[in-house]
Amino acid sequence: MTDAAAGAGAPPAPPQKLDELMLAMDVVDTLRHQQTVVDRALAESERDDMLRERLRQIYRSQGIEVPDATINEGIRALKESRFVYTPPAPGFSLTLAKMWVRRRTYGRGLLIGVILAGLGWGGYVFGIQRPAEQAAIASRIELSQTLPRLLTAAHQAAIAEARVEPARQRAGTLLAGGQAAIARGDAATARETVAEIDRLTATLRQEYTLRIASLPNEQTGFFRESDRGGPGRRYFLVVNALDRSDRPVQVQVRNEETNSTETVSRFAVGVPLDVWDAVRRDKQANGVLQGNRLGEKRRGELETTWLMRVAGGTLTRWQ
User: Fold this and answer.
1) How far apart are CA 294 and CA 212, in angstroms?
2) What are phi and psi of 267, to 5 degrees?
3) pTM for this model (two decimals)
């Protein structure tokens, strides 16, 4: 009977000490290297005896006496792959175990991811979603409450000032246009309509006299050569818009040469030649213009009431 057979039938060995375990592991490691050489020359039945002999020689040459029982234990351990690490098979349990081992690394990454996700979510909510929701709410309130109230108040103020039917009709037309804009959700047009009614009210509240410039150093009138293909010249009188205390009043005047509207208190009004000539002779007589009121703008009215005949057309620049 061989030593391997004797070892196989022996009772279980008592627990090994640390030195014996380390020696057995070294034996297995040495066997693993020697097995390749022996395998090339021997069959399996002869391999164990040859391994034992080679191991005895190796350790004796190092001055180490290894018991046969340790050598036999090493051969069994080699066959059983006892001291060989076998990686576990991939699976869900292995994945969880690896995540647990690397929990700090994953935890930092997860924390950073959570922080970045939180910042992104916060930026979206407070930078995009919340302002958009607030703007939508403000727009709904403006269209349903603010603008209707402002439009009604502006119309009422205009009607309160209007003393002629054309002014009341103009206010009513603007009111209808503003209400239509609100109905279709056009807040910009509705806001502009409110502003236009306010301008109408401001015009209705104005009250001034158009006095012909008559001081010695003031230009009273001038003429323009006609550029419209018509005959002759066009004549203008220079006027100042003044309130009851002779303070300048700013009014909107359209310059017919530029087709632009300007806010001024001094401008020129086109008149017939006979009116222009009468004013010229009046001023030349003694340097003082007796009849210097060309027209009046009364409160509550839109148009000027002319006290002299006019030919139409106004200029804001002529020098």
Assistant:
1) 6
2) -155, 180
3) 0.56
